[in-house]
Amino acid sequence: SLSDLCRRGGFKGDGRHRAMIKRHIEILVSTQCKSKGAFKDKNRNGLILDTFRYIRQAAFAGECDENGNTVERNFVVFDDPVRLNLETKYIKQIDVAFMRRIGSSIGQLLYTKLSHLLHEAQKQGYDYVDVEYPWLAERMGIKVYGQVWEAKKQLKQAISELVREHYIKEPKWNGWTLRFQGNVRHEFGERLPRQERKTAARKAGNQLN
Is 0.70 topped by the overall pTM? Predict the structure, then answer.
């Protein structure tokens, strides 16, 4: 139910927040994603170069569908790339409460990207990750600047926010390359709980919660 979604998101299950959740679901239905390698298809173990929707269809109890029939219960239909990732239990650990503390949109994008990159690096035995700025900016969906000083200015606030929150240590620039290293918030707020969530997802079988 919409009330359950509100509670899972940390909101009150009242009318205002139910309407907010419904509105954002409707926005996702009409939002088209054009992925140039930023969206990973875990089922085929590759990066998607395609256009798709996050949610293909949604309906809400009490409303009428396109055929004029009354909808009995809420439901959403995910587009194939999203659905396949859910079915393969592709879990990406995101701290929603932490994201709310990040003031800039670029900071939020950088957080989600580093969450994955640091995790992949740690699986290979590294406590840091080296990233080329053009590659990072393109996959974050932000403008790719042609001068290093412009790139540093663009990412300055985002990096400062993550450093201030102890998610990463101050990164080092070497030309176009940035070296990121996780800090205590990443270690205890994300890396350790990630394994617990993946274990729980595997035990859940094919049931999506």
Answer: no
The pLDDT tens digits for 55-96 are 888 888 888 877 888 888 888 888 877 777 676 665 566 777
CA distance 136 to 129: 12
Structure tokens at 138: 């393109």
Helix/strand/coil for 147: coil
If you average pLDDT over every residue of the chain, what do you get? 80
Contact 96, 140 (CB under 8 A): no
Q: Where are the extended beta strands (E) located within the chain?
A: 32-41, 46-53, 55-59, 75-78, 128-132, 172-174, 177-181
**Residue 5 to residue 12: CA distance in whole angstroms:** 10
**Is the CA virtual torsion 74, 88, 142, 150 positive or negative?**
positive
